Every structure is written in C-alpha cells, then in structure tokens.
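We were asked to recover a plausible sequence for a given structure. The inputs and outputs are reproduced exactly as logged, with field labels preserved.

PROBLEM: sequence recovery
POSITIONS: 97
GIVEN STRUCTURE:
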C-alpha cells in the first residue's frame, strides 16, 4: 500500500496547486460521504455509490462555480476532479466497503 501511495504522491507532484486542490477536494468528499453512509448502516453498494456520487457532484459544482465566477472551466480541472473521485471511490471500496 505504501508503494501505491508513494506513486500517487510522485504523480501529483507534477500538478500545480489548483489541480491538487481539485483532486483532494473530490477525494476527501468521496471518503466523507462513504463514512456517513457506513455510519447509517448502508450496504457496500450504497457506500461506494455515495462516494462516487458525492465526489462527482462536488467536481461538477466546482467547475460550474469556476465558469460562473471566472468565466473559465478548465478541462484539466475536470480531469483532476474525476481522478480524485475515482481514487476516493476505489479507496472506499477497499477500505470501508
């Protein structure tokens, strides 16, 4: 597991601060949503679905906000959102589900 985490950190080190924030936000929101559903006695599929849905909606919301506030929605921000959501969902499935 440590090797995987080290590879992820090395990969993220090439991103600028904004992309890391997008990635981290979606990852953390995914995990928090999964923990909430787990505490509510949800089954494995509910936990994983909540993780994915929460991260995905967070990413979409952030991009809509960026478009509204700054007039620019960056495709690499979208990619960071999706990657954070997917990794958060996978970690959720492995560790919580």
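RECOVERED SEQUENCE:
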């Amino acid at each position: 597991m440590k090797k995987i985490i080290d590879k992820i950190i090395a990969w993220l080190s090439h991103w600028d601060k904004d992309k890391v924030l997008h990635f981290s936000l979606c990852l953390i929101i995914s995990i928090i949503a999964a923990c909430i559903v787990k505490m509510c006695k949800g089954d494995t599929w509910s936990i994983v679905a909540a993780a994915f849905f929460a991260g995905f909606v967070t990413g979409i919301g952030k991009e809509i906000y960026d478009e509204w506030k700054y007039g620019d929605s960056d495709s690499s921000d979208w990619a960071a959102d999706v990657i954070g959501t997917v990794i958060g969902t996978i970690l959720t499935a492995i560790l919580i589900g």
